[in-house]
Design a protein that fits this description.
mainly alpha, globular
Length: 289
């Protein structure tokens, strides 16, 4: 009997596949800007929104979207003002976010199980409304990342050149910040705030081992994210493991396998002898005369 005949497993699979596509599509821009761990920080801020939602009996997902979006905008504005002071401010924002979330959850009537669902993910408890939210927001993020790829790549690769070229750099940076917040919020249901960055970064890092060019890396990362999400849900159903952790474990396993194969292929190419072309007939005559 297939476990995917149950509605909750089908919802979990569809939600994971959407996130598996959207997260790497956004993550490649974050990796390009050396902001691979920003998902972790925004996830901590989103936890404050979850706590506020549980405390005031509002939708935790909507409150998390609001908190994460505001936190992402603050992070982007801090990043523009300088690296030294920005690092300290970001650290305070990250730690304050998770501490505030824990305090607010403690003040509410929720149990620790509710908090664990957001820390480590609870994709199998996804409702029909949750799936609609994940689908709408995930498709919107995916469409924006693909449609605006040339402009976003220019901003991430060389911000000063993009500004001189007339691109709206601040608007594009804020767009990346907001879409990161949205992706973190919808991925929170799949892998939890403690593992969000892995789904954004690991497929991109895996694709970089074997691809050349931004477009090829983006396509490969999305394919790897789709594989990790689908196979992770299948493994969770068969082995009765946590879906979010299973997805991340498979993503990391894929990275290790691809990295080893790529390293072996490069070593084989270096050690392969270079063929020496045979001399032309007139060269042999001249040498023998």
């Amino acid at each position: 009997m297939s476990l995917f005949q149950y509605d909750f497993m089908l919802r979990a699979l569809v939600g994971a596949l959407i996130i598996g596509l959207a997260a790497p599509a956004l993550g490649i821009y974050l990796v390009q800007r050396r902001l691979a761990l920003i998902g972790d920080g925004i996830g901590h801020v989103a936890l404050t929104g979850v706590g506020a939602g549980l405390l005031f009996q509002k939708s935790p997902v909507i409150m998390a979207v609001i908190a994460a979006t505001l936190g992402a905008i603050v992070i982007e504005l801090i990043r523009e003002r300088g690296r030294t002071s920005g690092d300290l401010a970001l650290a305070l924002l990250f730690y304050g976010g998770i501490a505030g979330g824990v305090v607010l959850v403690g003040l509410s009537d929720s149990t620790s199980a509710n908090l664990n669902a957001y820390l480590f993910g609870a994709l199998t408890t996804t409702s029909q409304d949750d799936l609609v939210t994940i689908a709408v927001l995930g498709v919107a993020v995916l469409a924006a990342m693909i449609a605006l790829r040339p402009a976003l790549f220019a901003v991430c690769h060389d911000e000063e050149y993009a500004r001189v070229s007339g691109l709206p750099v601040r608007t594009l940076n804020l767009l990346l910040a907001v879409t990161t917040a949205i992706t973190v919020t919808i991925a929170m249901r799949a892998v939890g705030v403690l593992l969000i960055s892995a789904l954004m970064v690991v497929p991109v890092a895996t694709a970089q081992q074997v691809t050349r060019g931004f477009r090829g890396t983006m396509a490969a990362a999305m394919a790897l994210g789709l594989f990790a999400a689908g196979a992770g849900i299948w493994m969770a159903a068969v082995a009765d493991t946590a879906p979010g952790a299973s997805v991340v474990v498979l993503a990391i396993a894929s990275f290790i396998v691809v990295a080893l194969l790529a390293a072996g292929w490069r070593r084989l190419r270096r050690e392969r002898p270079v063929p020496v072309p045979a001399p032309e007939p007139h060269e042999v005559v001249l040498r023998g005369s």
